[in-house]
């Protein structure tokens, strides 16, 4: 299918767009548009193509959505956009979840955009990406004859990964305030970091203002904020180890999302890796799995481009599309 191709990574706050103009190359002409400034996805796509892509008319696209997708239909979890990608008027559109696109990026990320957190170099086997942001996303990536296949999931909604007595005290404090079932996303996300800070204040019996995640990571000279980040990284290590064991992620575990790139050195110096390996009968297995933090500026766009290229190369060749196609 003729170039250019459109790629998009659409979240609740921002929609990121790029244009693939050469086979095997990453997207260019990247622009970030505010979701609130546009009535819907078709309007945002039209604005991007007109204002940032010289009026290009793409014949194919891959759109990654932060929310549920089914067939050609999507719904943003944290914004009002919903509808069908048929409304874009692009001949071939791949519609995926945002963490599917992030997973598809993993084999293509340059070493300079990864920070090692322990273990050997990443291998070729099954890979996993998880990321605290507005929620806690999880996806796998499985090698296959035709390339790499992303496997989406809802792993962020498993029961919270507690390990030591402090973890249990935090969960008990939240339950005492009415949170009956505490799941991983309740603590391992941007809002979760704020909830964790509040819970730790309850455990320590101290008065503390309600702080947003951005305020907590900016106040590392405050003992409660520093302990909050310490607990966050430790719980994340246990969660990542659980996911690695569940999927057999011998190809590596990657951390993405919007929270961690702001505290890279804190994560590296934290209890993350020790707790990642702290499975009594499987510590040796986990010790052989690489853990890396993604610091790429637009990894989901790279993944969307890789997935679209793979899908188009596997499709029957024809000179022109005979109808609109959606996957």
Automatic annotation (TrEMBL):
GO terms for cellular component: cytosol. It holds the Pfam family Glucokinase. Its EC number is 2.7.1.2. It catalyses: D-glucose + ATP = D-glucose 6-phosphate + ADP + H(+). Its main location: cytoplasm. GO terms for molecular function: ATP binding; D-glucose binding; glucokinase activity. ATP binds at residues 8-13. It comes from the Bacteria. The keyword Transit peptide does not apply. Belongs to the bacterial glucokinase family. InterPro entries: ATPase_NBD, Bacterial_glucokinase, Glucokinase. It is found in: Cytoplasm. GO terms for biological process: glycolytic process. This is Glucokinase. Keywords: ATP-binding, Cytoplasm, Glycolysis, Kinase, Nucleotide-binding, Transferase. The gene is glk.
């Amino acid at each position: 299918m003729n170039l250019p191709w459109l790629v998009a990574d659409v979240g609740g706050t921002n929609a990121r767009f790029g244009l693939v103009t050469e086979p095997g190359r990453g997207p260019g002409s990247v622009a970030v548009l505010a979701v609130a400034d546009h009535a819907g996805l078709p309007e945002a796509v039209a604005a991007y193509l007109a204002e940032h892509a010289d009026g290009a008319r793409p014949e194919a696209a891959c759109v990654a959505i932060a929310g549920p997708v089914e067939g050609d239909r999507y719904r943003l979890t944290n914004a009002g956009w919903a509808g069908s990608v048929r409304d874009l008027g692009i001949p071939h559109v791949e519609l995926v979840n945002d963490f599917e696109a992030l997973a598809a990026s993993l084999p293509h990320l340059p070493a300079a955009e990864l920070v090692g957190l322990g273990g050997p170099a990443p291998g070729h086997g099954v890979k996993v990406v998880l990321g605290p942001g507005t929620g806690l996303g999880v996806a796998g990536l499985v090698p296959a004859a035709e390339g790499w296949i992303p496997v989406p999931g809802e792993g962020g909604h498993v029961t919270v990964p507690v390990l030591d007595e402090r973890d249990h005290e935090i969960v008990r404090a939240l339950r005492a305030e009415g949170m009956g079932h505490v799941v991983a996303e309740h603590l391992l996300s941007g809002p979760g970091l704020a909830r964790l800070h509040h819970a730790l204040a309850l455990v320590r019996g101290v008065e503390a203002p309600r702080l947003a995640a951005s305020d907590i990571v900016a106040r590392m000279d405050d003992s409660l904020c520093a302990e909050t980040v310490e607990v966050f990284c430790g719980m994340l290590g246990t969660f990542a180890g659980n996911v690695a064991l569940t999927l057999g992620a011998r190809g590596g575990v990657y951390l993405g999302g919007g929270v961690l790139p702001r505290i890279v050195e804190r994560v590296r110096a934290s209890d993350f890796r020790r707790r990642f390996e702290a499975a009594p009968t499987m510590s040796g297995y986990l010790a052989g799995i690489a853990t890396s933090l993604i610091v790429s500026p637009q990894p989901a766009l790279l993944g969307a481009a890789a997935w679209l290229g793979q899908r188009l190369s596997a499709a029957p060749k024809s000179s022109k599309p005979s109808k609109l196609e959606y996957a």
